[in-house]
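INPUT
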Amino acid sequence: MAKIPVLADVTSANNELADELRAELARRGILTLNLIASPGAGKTTLLERTIAALAGELRLAVVEGDLATSLDAERIVQAGAPAVQINTGGGCHLEAQMVRQALKQIDLDQTDVLVIENVGNLVCPTGWDLGEDAKVVVASLPEGDDKPLKYPSAFATAQAVVVNKIDLEPYLPARAETMRANALRINGSLAVFAVSCATGAGLEGWLDWLRGRVREKRAAHQRAAQASAHA
Amino acid sequence: MHEMSLAQSLLDLAVKHAQGQPIQALRVRVGALSGVVGDSLAFCFDFVSKGTLAEGARLILEPVPVPLRCRACRAATTTARHADLPGYEAVSLALEEGCPICGGKALDVVGGADFQLVEIEVKDG
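OUTPUT
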């Protein structure tokens, strides 16, 4: 019996492609977010709100992942941003290769922020790098404020959490503050925003975070451009 | 849930390194937060490996504890002392207990999603 060392990530093909996408998007100074949540948490509604609020300020483009239909992409287009729908059939997550295909249909020269709305699922998407700068989790209050403890991998790998549907708090046992504390227990560096996409409450904090990330991305892009000009 | 595609990726990687020799075993590291379900992976691997160099190969899964870092004293620890629990529960309990070095209550999860093919064993040619 002979042993052959391999020591490679099983998903290395996906990871290499994701790194290529990240480099390509960075070259254009585009901030890229991977939006992860359970079905029904409010990912698409958050994007509708965000697109409307930032109209004339930042140009968003959206890649929509769902098992079936182009309903979500239609909502995004209705809200005023370009969108490409990916249907995974039965697939539980998006992969980098699907995103690369979808990006062919998006005018990246007209894009400041690319949002990849993953398949509604708090488990599988966390294992697949899509070339994003940051993962953002949407967790809604009716799902329970212990969600971060029960699904820690999504929260552990994210940079921001949007706690949605806080307008329902009076009718629920769940508390937005408990959800925030539980998310921070899993990952103390998280930016947490308690919002209601129905009423618009709390969205300003989320929008400011997004603006800040775009500024950082552009600054890094300019530094890289200057460095290559001097080289 | 996506163990079938993971099993296929694992098989492709193993066959690529096997230099055409029949594979008898694969040693795989599985992080406690990788979401990979061992039994499901083994079932899928048996299925996708039929008729390949890895048909009938043993899948040796090595669980990897989740690395943690204390925000107060920066000590690097893991969930290894709770290895008997499922990954997510081990993390919850370790966070509840805090840092085993300084007692600090704030720990960051700094990994645990590993899913690596470490080595393969092939029949001596």
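end of record. The longest strand of chain B covers residues 23-31.
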